[in-house]
Design goal:
Bound molecules: pyridoxal-5'-phosphate
Number of strands: 17
Strand content: 15-25%
Distance between the termini: 40 Å
Number of domains: 2
CATH topology of the largest domain: Aspartate Aminotransferase, domain 2
Helix content: 25-40%
CATH class of the largest domain: Alpha Beta
Number of helices: 13
Largest sheet: 7 strands, mixed
Oligomer: single chain
Shape: globular
Strand order of the largest sheet: 4-12-11-10-7-5-6
Length: 427
């Protein structure tokens, strides 16, 4: 087995330097089980950040179905196969009635790229509206529509067909407080009018119903309800990016968009869908899928293969069998309540739904200056205390908590206790 230094050396020689690592002293994780990770020295870490390992690391049932199907058959969608249709049925049964047609892909990025392509084909336009600080993936087409990337380090700004609404953040956004919804909606109206004045059509409005990389932002109530209607009224397509927040994580509902009481035209899924196995999807209506079927085939070498679909199906079964949506509701609410008992000047805002939580750190209660370096320090101290969280948001001052869905009350207590002692000891 290679030691830490040898791995570092090989990584430096053969992996691209634009791949970053977590924590000042990166971890050498060698094993995972449930909500825990173990490093090469045998230290145990509570994983409070990996929402990809939705039903837990190394779930035996996932390993079992993957092995069974791998030993039997793995092909592509050009053959009739029971696994893909059963999975498509199970998945669409979880979605609103008319969202019943699936395209399978290998990553959330591929799903979002396809969703854009569908919207552009149908509307004959590329005019895309997004939320400030939003992130939708690593493909060129998605860097274009992700302010988190194109306005961040190394970014070249938005192309002229991408229109950005100020991040609807009632704590530190352009409009603040509890009655901001109409102000943010007016920004959408302005953009739609602008697109129309330029004699163009709105193609797509792509949003996360609870923003992840944008800083764990819970959107103002009825913001999506009002804006989705505006977009549909001018013939645009609403795309809900559920890559981070879907599959029961919200607790109160299976999908993030349901917390906003809307039905999108297209939903994109990924991350937790395969519990770490690369599977993602676009789900839309029959009408939209038929309009997209203009003669150009959609083929994806790996998307929808029997191994991936068996795994995806097992993830759905485990969510049901282990009652994980209910766990997200109960433990998520408990975690937020416990976090709100913390009283420290760095804590500006605690927000979230279910097991998708953010703690925004600020330096000055009036100016609300982002406590970026403090957030980084806390992230590293938490790691040293055996708890893995991350930081995010455009200023990287939001502590992000989005653990596997088996996270329990004791895990929440351990997190809150350690965060409290780190805050009180160091700041
Ligand atoms: C909201 C959102 N959409 C899409 C993606 C892209 O998914 P992937 O990394 O699987 O390509 C991400 C990844 O972090 C994401 O957070």
């Amino acid at each position: 087995m290679l030691n830490r230094n040898e791995i570092f050396k090989l990584r430096k020689a053969h992996l691209a330097p634009s791949l970053s690592m977590s924590y000042n002293t990166p971890l050498h994780i060698v094993k995972g089980f449930g909500q825990y990770l173990y490093d090469s020295e045998g230290n145990r870490y509570l994983d409070a950040v990996n929402n990809i390992q939705h039903v837990g690391h190394s779930h035996p049932k996932i390993a079992k179905v993957a092995e069974k199907q791998f030993r039997k058959l793995n092909t592509n969608t050009r053959y009739i196969d029971e696994k893909i249709v059963k999975y498509a049925k199970a998945l669409t049964d979880k979605l609103p009635e008319n969202l019943d047609v699936c395209f399978f892909t290998n990553s959330g990025s591929e799903a979002n790229d396809l969703a854009l392509r569908i919207a552009r084909t149908i509307t004959n336009s590329n005019q895309t509206i997004v939320l400030g600080a939003g992130y939708h993936g690593n493909l060129s087409s998605l860097v274009d529509i992700s302010p988190y990337k194109h306005e961040g380090p190394g970014g070249a700004g938005a192309p002229d067909f991408v229109h950005t609404i100020p991040r609807p953040d009632k704590f530190r956004g352009k409009y603040r407080g509890d009655n901001t919804v109409d102000a943010y909606v007016s920004e959408v109206i302005k953009i739609i009018d602008n697109i129309k004045q330029n004699k163009k059509n709105v193609s797509a409005f792509m949003v996360e119903s609870l923003m992840g990389c944008g800083g764990q932002i819970v959107l103002p109530e009825s913001f999506l309800k009002k804006t989705f209607k505006l977009i549909n009224d001018v013939g645009g397509i609403n795309i809900a990016d559920e890559v981070q927040i879907g599959f029961g994580r919200m607790g109160s509902s299976f999908w993030g968009f349901e917390t906003c009481d809307v039905i999108p035209d297209i939903v994109t899924l990924g991350k937790s869908m395969g519990n770490g196995h690369p599977i993602a999807a676009v789900v839309t209506t029959k009408e939209i899928a038929d309009k997209f079927n203009n003669g150009m085939e959609y083929f994806n070498s790996f998307g929808g293969n029997p191994v991936s679909c068996s795994i995806g199906n097992e993830v759905l079964n485990i969510i049901e069998d282990e009652d994980l949506q209910k766990n997200a509701l109960e433990v998520g609410s408990y975690l937020i309540t416990q976090l709100r008992t913390l009283d420290h000047p760095l804590i500006g805002d605690i927000r979230g739904i279910g097991l998708f939580v953010g703690i925004e750190l600020i330096k000055n209660k009036e100016l609300l200056s982002p406590a970026t370096s403090e957030a980084k320090l806390i992230e590293n101290h938490m790691k040293d205390h055996g708890i893995l969280i991350s930081t995010d948001g455009p200023d990287h001052n939001v502590l992000k908590i989005k653990p596997p869905m088996i996270f329990n009350h004791e895990n929440a207590d351990e997190l809150v206790y350690n965060l409290s002692s780190i805050l009180n000891k160091n700041f």
